[in-house]
Amino acid sequence: MISITPNQLSPRDAYRLLNSTVVPRPIAWVSTIGADGSINLAPFSFFNAVSGNPPTVMFSISQRAGKPKDTLRNAQATGEFVVNLVDESLAAKMNQTSGDWAYGTNEFEIAQLETAPSLDVQPPRVARAPIALEARVSQIVPVLGTPNTLILGHVVRWHIRDDLLRPNGLIDATRLHPIARLGGDEYATLAAIFEMTRPTV
Ligand SMILES: Cc1cc2nc3c(=O)[nH]c(=O)nc-3n(C[C@H](O)[C@H](O)[C@H](O)COP(=O)(O)O)c2cc1C
Prior knowledge:
Layout: H1 11-21, E1 28-33, E2 39-44, E3 47-52, E4 55-61, E5 63-64, E6 67-68, H2 70-78, E7 80-84, H3 91-96, H4 107-110, E8 115-116, E9 125-126, E10 131-142, E11 149-160, H5 173-176, E12 179-181, E13 187-189
Antiparallel strand pairs: 1-2, 1-7, 3-4, 4-11, 5-6, 7-10, 8-9, 10-11, 12-13
Bound molecules: flavin mononucleotide.
């Protein structure tokens, strides 16, 4: 085994090693709206579900040249966001929206993506996204000792493409075709799905 401590690595190499260790990561493609009404869309793979009831998701935003990213500014200003899920057909457009576009740039336009209105929050969703979660910010938590900020939000509405919701209430992952982030510029698609029943104790 190779044994490494973070202080043996540059901050960049520690980030790269962690990012290629914690894999595969789901991608939140987050749409927000600014206090000035500007619309923003950007991907975040430090993303997960963190509570079932009320359904709660979180994502972690780092800084750009010591300044808050647009998504954090907007979430702080308006308290709302939409998590759009990314399938294989949307991968390239998702990547386009991750550019360091100036504040106020509408990444829906950059990537030529149609918007669809949300029902309970202001930010629009990505019309072609297979699933979109409308969410209200519940907490904004600085990650101590790091440049990151966690945004937690309660999901207030799901938008689910017709063919994806199975009669048993679960999303059909074989039809969803989600993409996931690996280390560096690498991504993954979903391979074999298998089932296991938890032990009854
Ligand atoms: C797949 C993918 C995942 C990303 N994950 C994160 C992340 O978890 N946190 C983060 O701060 N930036 C992440 N980024 C970079 C942001 O998307 C990028 O900085 C973007 O410009 C932020 O946009 P904003 O300033 O409009 O909020 C990721 C980029 C890609 C392509």
